[in-house]
Amino acid sequence: MDKVIVVTAPTTPTRPRHTFLKAGQDLYKAALELSNSGGLPGPTDHLAGLAAECVAKAMLIDFFGSVQDSPNAKPYSPVIEGMPGMNKYKASHGHMPGAWDHLMLVANGRRGAEVRKHIPRQNPFKTRSDAWHESHRYLDGDKLPAQRVARHLAAALSLITAYNHAK
Known about the structure:
This protein has 167 residues and is mostly helical. It is 50% helix and 0% strand. The protein has six helices and no strands. Helix 1 packs antiparallel against helix 2 (41-63), helix 2 (41-63) runs parallel beside helix 4 (98-106) and helix 5 packs antiparallel against helix 6 (146-166). The protein is globular. The N and C termini lie far apart (58 Å).
């Protein structure tokens, strides 16, 4: 009996589907629980910003053509990359407030209208009084105004609501 040797082509591992929406929802729930416990405004604000960022990225990928095919798996928008003055680096979706700005750049059509209907017109993570940055996690969170934290929680919830209405 002759031996048969089967040679198969190497397969490219498939990337698991992103979980930005689930991550955003879970981060929002954690932020809300911290907020309801009456303490830790700094971590609450940080989690609210991360929640909003994750949901914005979910919408960018699921509704507005962003992809996650780079070696570092950082999502980016080919549409934004093609805009004047932009490049792949500038089209990469980072933290807030940039992720919100990217969403507003590409949110168009029926889904874009639905998203815009449910979120504030002004980026709540970019306003002078409520500017959010990932490095703020190192600040003394006890000095953050409760209204700021509440606005960021509301903004994260508005993005989750917008996602659910736009799908």
